[in-house]
Amino acid sequence: MDSLFQRSLDDIIKGLRHQQAGESAFVSKVLEEVRREIKSTDSHTKSTALQKLTYLHSICFVDMSWAAFHAIECISYPNFTHKKVGYLAISQSFQESTPVILLISNQLRKDLKSNVEVEVSLALECLSRIGNLDLCRDLTPEVFTLMASSRIPVRKKAIGVVLRLFGKYPDAVRVCFKRLVESLESSDSPPIVSAVIGVFCELASKDPKAYLPLAPEFYKILVDSRNNWVLIKVLKIFTKLAPLEPRLAKKIVEPICELMSKTGAKSLMFECIRTILTSLAEHESAVKLAAGRINELLIDEDPNLRYLGLHALAIVAPKHIWAVLENKEFVIKSLSDPDPNIKLESLRLVMEMVSESNVVEICRVLVNYATKSEPEFCNVILGSILSTCSNNVYEIIVDFDWYVSLLGEMSRIQHCQKGEEIENQLIDIGMRVQDVRPELVRVGRDLLMDPALLGNPFLHRILSAAAWLCGEYVEFIRNPVELMESLLQPRTSLLPPSVRAVYLESAFKALVFCLHSYLKSATSSDHSALGLSDPGVSSQSYDEFSGAHGENGEASGTTLIQENHITPDSVLHLLNLIDMAVGPLSGSYDVEIQERARNILGFTELIKPVLSDSLHPQDERHKQQVEASKMVRLLHDTFSDELGPVSMSAQGRVPVPDGLVLHENLADLEAVCGSSLPASSATISFEGSHNVEGATSIFISDQKEESEPSSESTSLLAEHRKRHGLYYLPSEKNTEHHEANNDYPPANELKSGVTVSNDAQDLAKLAEQSFLPKRKSKQVKARPVVVKLDEGDVLPISSKIPQAKDDSLSEAVRDVLLGNEADADTLTQKAAADSVIRKKGKEKLNAKEQEDDLDHMDSQSGTVQNPVKERSKRSSRKQNADEGDHGGDKGKQKRRHRHGKHRTREGVQNPPANVISQTPVPDLLL
Amino acid sequence: MIHFVLLISRQGKVRLTKWYSPYSQKERSKVIRELSGIVLNRGPKLCNFVEWRGHRVVYRRYAGLYFCMCIDEADNELEVLDIIHHFVEILDRYFGSVCELDLIFNFHKAYYILDEVLIAGEFQESSKRTIIRLLSTHDSMVEMAKEEATSIGNMIAQVTK
After folding, report:
1. Are residues B72 and B144 in the same domain?
2. B38 with B67, same domain?
3. Which region ranges are annotated with the description Disordered (chain A) (predicted)?
4. Which end of chain A, N or C, is less surrounded by CB atoms within 10 Å?
5. A234–B contact, CB cutoff 8 A
6. Phi, psi (deg, nearest 5) at residue A668
C-alpha cells in the first residue's frame, strides 16, 4: 500500500518550512513524488497527491495544468474528502482554456442535483470560478432550479453564480432573469436579497439602462432595508440609474440624504456621499449636505477617511468647485501628507482649483514644492502643471511670458523628466503665440548657454526645442554671435544625433541672420559714410531685398537694435568658428548631421571669398557685397517664412488641382526632375533642409505643399495622413513639386507683416476653417493672441462614444423585462411594465393598486413632498395591501403565484435538454 | 466586484490566493510580485488603499499578515475593509484566535471559509454564525468520510478488491 509511505500535506508544509536554502530542490523532489503518486488507482493516494500539488501551486506557483484530468477524477469520487480536494484543485488551477474542462460538465450536473447541501455548494462555487460558455449553457437549467431551492445557502450561491452565467452565456437571462427579479422580493431572508442586489449591482454597472424598469423594486429596498451591505449596493445601482431618469433622481434624493445623516456606518455614509456627488449633483441642497459630511471626513484621524474625503472632493470638483475651495487650506496641507496616495489626491484637487486668476500663484507654490520632494512625486507635480496649463490650448494662461519662463525653470529642476512634454509645449507656444517669442527666445538662450545642462539626458529634448526656437526666431536674439557660440560649443557632442542636427540647423539660421544684418548695416553705414558716392547701387539694391522679404516691421525693428553687434571681426570670428566646429562633422556617421554640416560648410565656402573681400575696404566692394547680399538674402528669405500650427485635418481640405494625376504611372517623373532640378537647385535645396528641420517640431507648415491629392487613391493617402499626421516626414520631393505647386498657397503659411488675426482670417477662407484668435478683454494685461484651430488641434482620436457593450446580455435583459416592447424610456412605461412583473395578477384590486402606484410615482416626481406625507401615503398603501390579504383576494393571488412558480420549475425539470429553446420567458413574465 | 484576494506575509510569502477574474499563471505571479512590493513597503499610518493599474487594492494588516483585495474604481473601499475584517473574524472564530500557522497548515480550510464569504467576487454572507455553522457541517462530513475510509470493512474491501 503506497498510501502508507506517502508524505501527507503536513509533511510537505513542515518540510518546506524547514528548508533554509534550496527550497526549489525540495519542491522539485516533492513534485516528482506527486507525479508518481497521482497516477495511483487508490483514491486516497491520488487525492493527497493532488492536495499537495494544489498547495505548491497556490504558494510556490508550480504549474499544475498537467494534473487537470486527475483533478476531475477526484471530484468524481464518492468520498466527500476526495471530492473536496478535487474541487479546490479545479477552482484554483483551471482556466477557461483548460482542454479537459468539458469533461467536468456531467459531474457538476450530478453534484448540483445532489441532496447533500455541501456538495451542491462545492459545485456552485466551482462553476462560479471556471464556468465558460459551454459549461454555463449546459448547466443553466440546474442553476435555475437551485435558485428556487428551499435551502437558503444554496439559493444564495445559485444567485451568485447567475452573474457568471449571464456573463458567459447571455441567453441564460431568458431562463433565470424572472426568478432573479422575484428573489428581490424575498425580504424574509436578507442573505438572498443581498446576493441578488450584488448581482444587479454588477449587471447595472455594465449597462444601467436595461435595469431602469426595476427601479421601483430597488427603491423599495432603499427605503425599507436596514442592512448596510445591501444599502451600499442599492446606492451603487442608483448611482448608475439616476442620470438616466431625472424623475428617479428627484425621488431618491430625499431618502439618500436621510440615510446619510442617520447612519453610523462610515462605509454607507461614504456611499451616500458618492451617490449624491456623482449622480445627484444637480440637487444643490443634497450636495451641500454631502459637502458637510465630507468636511467631517477630512478632519478625521483615520487616513482612510481623509483619503476618501479628498476623493469625494475630486468627484464634486468639476460641478461644484466651491466645495473644494471651502477646504482649500486642508487640500494644500495634504500635499505634504506622509501618505503618497493622499498627496496625489490633493494634487489633483489643487489642479482642479486652478483658474486664470490664481494659476501663477498656485504654480509657483507647486514648483517650489516639487523641487523639495522626491523625484517621483516631483515629476507627477510637473506633469500635472504641464497638462493643466496646456489644457484646451492654454486656456487659463494669460501671461505667456510668465508661463514660458516657468517652463524654463521647470527644465532646470534636478529631477525633471518631462523633457518631451516641455519640448512640445515650447514649440507649440512659439508657433501659436506671436507676442511671447522674445521671451521664448530669451529662455531658450539661457538654456542653451549653460554647458552643464548638456550632460543631463532628460533635458536633451528641451534643449532641442530651445535650439529650434532660437534658430527660428533668431531676430529676437540680442547677441546672435553668442548664440552661435553656444550652439556650437564642444559639449554639444554629448547630444544625441537628432538633437545635434537641430542645433546645426539653428546655427545655420543664426549665421544667415548675422550675415544678413551685417550686410544690411554695412550698406546703410556705407550709405551714410559715403554720402552721395554711390547711392544707387548699394542702398537701393538692399532696400529691394528687405522689401522683398519683409514688411515684417517688428523683425527689422529689432534688427536695428542689434546691428552694433555684428562687426567685420565678429563675422570673421563666426566663419572661423564654423570651420572649426562644423568642419569635423561633415564626416559624421549620422546622415542628418552630416548633411546639415555640409550645407553650412557649402554655404560658407560660397560666401567666404565674396565676403572676405567685402570685409576689406576696396573699390569694388559694393559689387561684391551685392553679390553676397543676394546669396544671403535668398537664404534669409527661405528662413523668414513663418511656421504655424496646422490642423491635422487640413490636408484633406486642400482643393485638388486640375490635371494633377497622381495615381498614374510616374514614369515621366525623371524627365520632369531632370529639367527642373538643375534650374532651381540653388534656390530650393535649402528649403528642403528647412523642411527636414521642421520635422522635429510638431507642426510643419510646408506639409501642405507636398502633395495635392487628386482622386480616390490619393484621398486615401490624405485620410491616412490625416490620422497619422504626426508620423509623416515631409518628403524631400517637396522641392521638385514646389514650382509646379506655386499656385496653391500653403494652407497655413503666416505671412509676415500682417497681424495674426487678419492672417488667420485669410487662412480661414483658404482652408474653410477658422482660427480663433482669442482675446480676453477683461484682463489687466491683455492676453496675447493664441492661434487656435477650430478642430484638429488634437489628433483625431477615433473616440467612439462608449456604446452599451455586451449587447447580447442587455438585449436579453430588455427582452425579458419588456417582452420585446419599446425601450423603457419613460417612468410610466417602466412602472407599468414593472408592476406587471411584480404582480402578475389580473384582479381588479391589483389594477387599482397599479394605478395608485403610478399616481404615487407621478406626484412624487412632480413636487417635492414632505416626508410625513409620503410616509403616510405609503403606510396607507400598506394598509390597503393588508386588507387585501385579509379579504382573501390577495391571498388567492399569492397562492396562485406560488403555484405558477412551481409549475415553472417542473417544466424545467422534466425536459432539461431543451429548456433553453423552449422556455417562453416573456409569456411567463408578463 | 472583487477581482482577487491575496494573503501575503510580512516576509513576502504568499499564504492564500483566490482569483475571481481570469489571470494567467504568469500574470498571477507578476501581480503578486508587484503588489507585495507596493503593499509591504507602505508605512503603518498610511491609508489602506492603493491605486493600481486602474483598479484599487484595499489591504489591511493583521499581525504579520496582509489581507489584500483588488476592486473596481467604483466599489466602496470601506465596505471592502469591512469584508476583510469580517473574513478575519470568521477565521478567528473558526480556528480560535487564528494565527498565521493555522492558515499555513490548514490552507484548504482557509479557502473554504473564503468561499463562504465570497462567491464570484461578490460578498455573499454577512452572518458569522451561519458561516460557522456551514463550516462545521463541512467538517463533520469530512470526518464521516474519513471514518468511513479508514473503517476496517473498507480496508478489507480495498485489499480484497
Report:
1. no
2. yes
3. 822-926
4. N
5. no
6. -85, 10
| A295, A322 Cβ separation under 8 angstroms | no
Give the up-direction half-sphere exposure of residue A82: CA atoms within 13 A in the CB hemisphere.
Answer: 21
CA-to-CA distance for A701 and A441, rounded, in angstroms?
20
Q: Do A160 and B134 touch (CB under 8 A)?
A: no
Using the beta-carbon criterion (under 8 Å), do A54 and B122 form an inter-chain contact?
no
Tell me how close the Cα of B125 comes to any Cα of chain A, in angstroms: 6
Grid coordinates belonging to A40:
495511483
Which residues of chain B lie closer than 8 angstroms to A339, CB-CB?
Answer: 43, 45-47
Distance from CA of A168 to the nearest CA of B (A): 13
CB contacts, 8 Å: A163 with chain B: 120, 122
Number of domain units in chain B? 2
Q: Which of B75, B122, B130 sits opposite A160 (nearest CB)?
A: B122
Q: Are residues B27 and B45 in the same domain?
A: yes
Minimal CA–CA distance to A232: which of A188, A279, A265? A265
Check whether residue B64 and residue B114 sit in a common domain.
Answer: yes
Q: pLDDT band for position A910 (50/70/90)?
A: very low
Q: For A41, name the nearest residue in chain B, comparing CA atoms only.
A: B158
Q: In this structure, which amino acid lies at residue A48?
A: T
- Chain B positions in Cβ-Cβ contact with residue A96 (cut-off 8 Å): 22
Residues B100 and B25 in one domain: yes
Chain A nearest-CA distance from B68, in A, is 15
Boundaries of domain holding B30: 2-126
Contact A332, A350 (CB under 8 A): yes
Instruction: Give A274's contacts (C-beta < 8 A, 6+ positions apart).
Output: A235, A239, A312, A315, B76
Q: Which residues pair with B49 in a beta bridge?
A: B58
Residues A337-378: tens digit of each pLDDT: 788 888 888 888 888 888 888 888 888 888 888 888 888 888
Same domain, B120 and B132: no
Taking one residue from A and the other from B, the number of pairs with CB-CB distance under 8 angstroms is 153
Q: How far apart are CA A79 and CA A501, in angstroms?
A: 77
Closest-CA residue of B relative to A198 is B122
**Chain A window 267-286: which residues touch B at a Cβ cutoff of 8 Å?**
267, 270-271, 274
Residue A195, chain B, CB below 8 Å: the answer is yes
Same domain as B45, residue B115: yes
Nearest chain B residue (CA) to A272: B76
CATH number at residue B15: 3.30.450.60
A750: Cα separation from own chain's centroid: 33
Q: How far apart are CA A318 and CA A322, in angstroms?
A: 10
List, for residues A711-726, the tens digit of each pLDDT value. 555 565 566 656 655 5
CA distance B88 to chain A (A): 17
Question: Shortest CB distance from A81 goes to which of B49, B79, B142?
Answer: B142
Give per-residue pLDDT as tens, B40-81: 888 888 888 888 888 999 999 998 899 999 999 888 889 999
Distance CA A128, CA B22 (A): 12
List CB contacts (< 8 A) between B50 and chain A: 341
Q: Clarify whether residues B40 and B84 are in a common domain.
A: yes
- What are the residues facing A104 on neighbouring strands? none
CA dihedral A785, A789, A790, A796 (to 10 degrees): -150
Note whether B76 contacts A304, CB cutoff 8 Å: no
pLDDT band at B5 (very low <50, low <70, confident <90, very high): very high
Distance of alpha carbon A713 from alpha carbon A724, whole angstroms: 17
Q: Is A233 helix (H, G, I), strand (E, B) or coil?
A: helix
The beta strand positions in chain B, using DSSP E, are 2-9, 14-19, 49-52, 55-62, 65-71, 118-119, 122-123
Beta strand ranges found along A853-925 (DSSP E): none
Question: Which residue's C-alpha cell is 506671436?
Answer: A434
| A398 to A250, A253, A405: CA distances (angstroms) | 41, 41, 13
Amino acid at A584: P
